[in-house]
Amino acid sequence: MTKFVSAAAIAALATLPSIASADWTGRYFGATLGASTNGEIEITDTDDTDSVDFDDLVDLEDSSVFGVHYGSMSQNNQFVLGGEAAVLFAPDAEFSDEALVDGAIIDLKGKAGFAVDRFLAYGILGVSFVGGTFGVNDLSTVGLAYGAGVGFLPTETLAISAEYVARSTSEEFVEADADINIDTLTLRASFKF
């Protein structure tokens, strides 16, 4: 009886997909949902270098973000390299506790990571474009994006991941220099194809 049970268990395990055969290689497209965890805007007059910190006027923290992402990854043994373009919208950032600032973030990210079975841990480095309406003016900044993420492949075509990305961007704004720093924590669902 024991031999029969052992043989049945081995046969059942043999029919399950091999976890070790999980592969992150391929293109993917998906949806993103999360929140900004830290954010600040500073505008410096280029003539007299006086700076104004708008942290009390613009609430970039705890604003919800959502968007889409598209990318491609290649796995070689346990090492994974890839690139991704992502768009995030932040529709509920508050300006002066009254009006809303419609903001958007575009990230062009490179990824490098290490996969163990169906799990992946990776670092992120890239370029970020942050834009939106600030008062009556449109503001667009560009700068560095960096962070880290973890992912899991529950199936061969579905990937679930979480990312923390920090952004440090700047640009000229109405005869001044504008610096926007915004960090986001997001949960992502991606479909591989």
Structure description:
This protein is mostly beta strands and 193 residues long. The protein has a single domain (19-192), classed as Porin (Beta Barrel), CATH 2.40.160. Helices cover 7% and strands 71% of the residues. The chain has one helix and ten strands; from the N terminus they run αββββββββββ. An eight-stranded antiparallel beta barrel has the order 1-4-5-6-7-8-9-10. A hairpin with a 5-residue loop joins strand 8 and strand 9 (158-172). The model is unreliable at 12-20 and 96-100 (pLDDT under 50).
**Structural domain tally:** 1
Mean pLDDT: 80
| Helix/strand/pairing category | mainly beta
Instruction: Provide the CATH topology.
Output: Porin
Shape: elongated
| Largest sheet: number of strands, sense, barrel closure | 8 strands, antiparallel, barrel
Q: What top-tier CATH class fits best?
A: Mainly Beta
Element string (H = helix, E = strand): HEEEEEEEEEE
Q: DSSP helix count?
A: 1
Label the CATH architecture. Beta Barrel
Helix content: under 10%
Q: What's the gyration radius in Å? A: 22 Å
